[in-house]
Amino acid sequence: MGKATGFIDYPRELPPEREPKKRIGDWKEHNQAWPEEKWRQQGARCMDCGTPFCHTGIQYEGAALGCPLYNLIPEWNDLVYRGRWKEALSRLLKTNNFPEFTGRVCPAPCEGSCTVGIYDPPVAIKGIERMIVDKGFAEGWIVPSPPKKRTGKKAAVVGSGPAGLACADQLNKAGHSVTVFERADRIGGLLMYGIPNMKLEKEIVDRRIRLLQEEGIQFVTNTEVGKDILPEQLRSQYDAVILCTGAQNQRDLNIPGRELQGIHLAMEYLTLNTKSLLDSNLENGEYISAKGKDVIVIGGGDTGADCVATALRHGCRSIVQFGKHPKLPSERSAANPWPQFPQVFSLDYAYQEALEQTGKDPREYSVLTKRFSGDSNGQVQALHTVQMKKIIGEDGRADFQEIPGTEKTWPAQLVLIAVGFRGPEREVMDAFGLDYDNRCRVKASFGKYTTNIPGVFAAGDARRGQSLIVWAINEGRGAARECDRYLMGDTILP
Fold it and tell me: What is the crossing angle of helices 36-44 and 125-138, to 10°?
């Protein structure tokens, strides 16, 4: 540890963000640059504690503890403090294939398990990670490194999200010839079309894709497995197939009025917006516009927040986001102790923007949508809701009960449903004849990733259900390791 009193000498700081009222006029990332000296001070706050929970990477009682990638956080924090950035990058890349993604869009469970965070604000791990990799690209330290020798084995990866890309990267490093199949017109999966530009600019994704191509990975777009290419073709042409299709079966609301126009699933809204932005800077009009509309987002998670930020940039008239849970406390509750990820109230980028633009936080809590109503043309015009109270039973399960007399009508000409995902889509699984559980997740045990079909593996959200980007990368790396073992009888992959 370079500075024993660093966590005492320096407070937690983060780089300034662009002013909310200015940034909603464009689609650029909201973070700004910061001097290296500031990051070195933040690295000095790392305690090099005896048991660094920040990279434990486990789940305990349903809560995440630390980084699932087991990033060597104390090591590269210390190297950053000492100004040894290239060595810090080397440590970072040992465990994380794509720190430029996680450093931008990961919720940072590592920070929730930081030892400094027991009594003070945690080390700014996520920001330091991003600075390391961004400096690596800027300085030209990150260059193509194709394998020196090929094994003669071929692997097909289905899906180009973080799990698929991590799996392909690792298999390619092992010397196998890898082809990634993606049904969309661009590579990246949810990194490309599910996460808005203001959180992850697409040139960041494209830069990594170009690097992977230069290292020998082949990418095939506009190709849906089960339709454009059959599973039996993949299995006959490749020595192994790894399914990393994600969990894109979105949950819907089966309530009266759902058939009305103007009600959309969140991912349809976000995907069409990003595609139109990339294709034409939104000039082709091939997206769902919130301009001049009263917009309601149903669902209190990150996807809902992204819908809020997107609607603000369209120029909506008003914006409200419904969540079914009560407002989170400002500090950890007794039921949410360190080193669990802290379930506390925060003002995300989208809510900062809404607050500046409209004068209020757009979130409404403990709301149940009962029905939609529309006009004579079949266009949605209003939502009808009731407040709920959350009751925790003796078994620890939550029950939601309606509160009589709290009914309310909300104007809305655009409704976005962001209530999560049921799991992967069944079409690919059925085409392969895979076994899956009652939540449509492919049956493949964690750590092995093998399915009921020999030579076919599954990883990421397709196997575990909707989860974090760090878990997707973890599983992609793990599936690559087990696939390498299957192909070669042993493995050189971590």
Answer: 140
Q: What is the distance of C-alpha 183 from the center of its chain?
A: 19
**What structural domains and CATH numbers belong to the chain?**
6-138 (1.10.1060.10), 154-248+422-488 (3.50.50.60), 252-419 (3.50.50.60)
Please give the single-letter amino acid code of residue 159: G
Eight-state DSSP code of residue 34: -
**CA-to-CA distance for 285 and 276, rounded, in angstroms?**
7
Q: What is the DSSP letter of 55?
A: G
| Cα dihedral 487→215→161→439 (10° resolution) | 0
DSSP 364-388: E-SEEEEEEEE-TTSBEEEEEEEEE
Place 1 in a pLDDT band, splitting at 50, 70 and 90: low
Taking alpha carbons only, the member of 321, 286, 97 closest to residue 191 is 97
Q: And the tokens for 425? A: 């889509």
Render pLDDT for 9-66 as a digit per residue (tens, 0 to 9).
999 999 999 999 999 999 999 888 899 999 999 999 998 788 899 988 887 777 778 9
* CA pair distance 470, 6, nearest whole angstrom: 28
pLDDT tens digit sequence for 290-302: 999 999 999 999 9
pLDDT in tens, 233-261: 999 999 999 999 999 899 999 999 999 99
Q: Which residues contact 83 (CB under 8 A, 6 or more apart)?
A: 36, 40
Distance CA 209, CA 66 (A): 28
Determine the Cα–Cα distance for residues 279 and 115; give it in Å rounded to an integer.
45
Mean per-residue pLDDT over the chain, rounded = 95
**pTM recorded for the entire structure:** 0.96
Asked whether the bond before 99 is cis by omega within 30 degrees of 0, the reply is: no
Cα–Cα separations (whole angstroms), residue 92 to 77, 88, 137, 204: 10, 6, 13, 18
Q: 302-315: per-residue pLDDT in tens?
A: 999 999 999 999 99
Residue-wise pLDDT for 109-123, tens only, equals: 999 999 999 999 999
What confidence score (pLDDT) does residue 398 get? 86
| HSE-CB for 416 with a 13 A CA cutoff | 31
416-468, pLDDT tens digit by residue? 999 999 889 888 899 999 999 988 899 999 999 999 999 999 999 999 999 99
Between the CA atoms of 136, 141, 142 and 147, what dihedral angle is there, to the nearest 10 degrees?
A: -150
